[in-house]
Amino acid sequence: MNTHAGLLAEFLRLRVDESGKTLAVLSKQVGYSTSQLSTHLSGRIPPHDLVVGLIAATVPALLRERREAEAVRMLRDAQHPPRTAARSVVPAQVSAVSVAQVQAEQLQVYERLTRALEQEGELRQAAENSARLVWVLLGMVNTLEDRVRQLSGERDRLIDRVAEGDAEAAQRRIGRAEEQKAAAESELARAREKQRQAEELADRLRQEIEALTDALDRFRDAGPGTSASRSC
Question: Contact 57/32 with Cβ under 8 angstroms?
Answer without folding.
Answer: no
